[in-house]
């Protein structure tokens, strides 16, 4: 039986951590430890951790704020497991997660792996719509949770990311602490010749942001992060990553089209309307809710437009 070390960086989100730890107490496979790294928070979670001392093999560390990448490195240094499993604090873990991972690693050795994220039935309609916007083929090309996607080779993301101790001892941990740090880490692991795949059944429930304003800010940052990754790995900027940029330009072009040609404006409006009708239908069917389908329209708009805006800002105004 492998031992897993769960690494959880956290910053000012004690109640999120409580839900995550509660889900970990329900795991069928229980040969794991939990390492919580408080990254300079003002709202500390030490009292939350204390509640689980008798229910989990759990350790709590407080460090100065340096960002989630370096907080994970701190956790790697403290870990005793064979694999280091990274979860975001806004995750809920299905009870068979470690059982699925263990079975898969018994079938096929992997140096690193990731898994998809999904919306829990208890999530609000807005959270389900945001989850759709982040995972749908029609918005992201399925780059986040599929072995085959428009972005090329699968790259594990930090919300659900496992690495072997061998990887850590060979290439170290994160060299970036924010701005696409998990993608950069994944790319270095792959470049070093390690075997990396997705375990599609090892999904987690990802709460993400609870309102659209927070979601806009998050996606704006993700757009900036993609350009930051481009600086280190120019070949990793794929056509699918440019789609939000072109979408943003298309939206801005509507302002000029209405002045230049009404017929062109109507045609463009019909195209964008048809696109969002597809999103409404697809999300409604997948979530079995017309309301979630409706909310998926502004969520998808924000996913594309905010990403495109962040992408543009970082590309134009930042150098080196």
Structure summarized in a few sentences:
The chain is α/β, with parallel strands linked by helices. The protein contains 12 helices and 10 strands.
Which structural class matches the secondary elements?
alpha/beta
Q: Level of helix content?
A: 40-55%
> Which descriptor suits the 3D outline?
globular
How do the helices and strands follow one another from N- to C-terminus? EHEHEHEEHEEHHEHHEEHHHH
Strand arrangement, largest sheet?
3-2-1-4-8-6-9
Strand content: 5-15%
| SS elements, strand count | 10
| C-alpha end-to-end distance | 46 Å
Enumerate how many helices there are, as a single number.
12
Radius of gyration equals 20 Å
Catalogue the unreliable spans. none
Task: Report the average pLDDT across residues.
Answer: 92
Main sheet record: 7 strands, mixed
Task: Please specify the SSE layout and strand pairing.
Blueprint: E1 4-10, H1 14-24, E2 32-39, H2 46-51, E3 58-63, H3 68-78, E4 83-87, E5 91-92, H4 97-107, E6 112-114, E7 117-118, H5 125-135, H6 137-140, E8 160-164, H7 165-171, H8 181-191, E9 196-198, E10 204-206, H9 212-232, H10 239-260, H11 262-287, H12 290-317
Parallel strand pairs: 1-2, 1-4, 2-3, 6-9, 7-10
Antiparallel strand pairs: 4-8, 5-10, 6-8
Helix pairs in contact: 5-12, 9-12, 10-11, 10-12, 11-12
Written description of the protein model:
- The chain has twelve helices and ten strands.
- The chain has helices at about 15-25, 45-50, 70-80, 95-105, 125-135, 135-140, 165-170, 180-190, 210-230, 240-260, 260-285, 290-315; strands at about 5-10, 30-40, 60-65, 85, 90, 110-115, 115-120, 160-165, 195-200, 205.
- α1 links the parallel β1 (about 5-10) and β2 (about 30-40).
- α10 crosses α11.
- It starts with a strand and ends with a helix.
- The mean pLDDT is about 90.
